[in-house]
From TrEMBL:
Family: Belongs to the low molecular weight phosphotyrosine protein phosphatase family.
Domain Phosphotyrosine protein phosphatase I intervals: 11-162
Enzyme Commission designation: 3.1.3.48
Name this protein carries in UniProt: protein-tyrosine-phosphatase
GO molecular function (one): protein tyrosine phosphatase activity
Pfam annotation, one family: LMWPc
Domain of life: Bacteria
Annotated active site: 17 (nucleophile), 23, 136 (proton donor)
Lineage: Bacteria, Pseudomonadati, Bacteroidota, Bacteroidia, Bacteroidales
Amino acid sequence: MVKENHEKRKIALLFICLGNICRSPAAHAIMQRDVEEAGVSDRFLIDSAGIGPWHVGDLPDRRMRQHGARRGLDISHIARQFNAKADFRAFDRIVVMDEDNYLAITSKAMSEADREKVIRLSDYLLDHPGAHSVPDPYYGNGTDFELALDLIEDGCRHLLAAIIEQEDGIAVD
């Protein structure tokens, strides 16, 4: 007797920003929360990384952790640097926060298939149609961190819905 495998494959998402201490660890935490709330955390592998090495081994920026905690988020990912060879192989989608991130990561692609994995979170900012990126709040104030979190929550919510719709053929609101 043959047993059918109804398990869905894991979808691996990697969020990228410049240093992996503000936007990408926040996106990591937000998407993790969203997949748990949707009951699909067993189908996702979520991580984040930075383009540069400046903060490798560090916790996220204190201000991002504080603003995230006010929203019930545990933003505690330890910063790491993007590794083109390993990360293009391991992840299905590499989600960048702005156009500079997009250019930096696509320039490291070793094939067209790698390049196609790189997507912009801004393409999923459906509740903020005027936004074309998730601005880096690092040199800003609390308002900048709140805006980044608002945009990331918007983008992650709609990205998750798009992935589920694509994988399962089921539209999610």
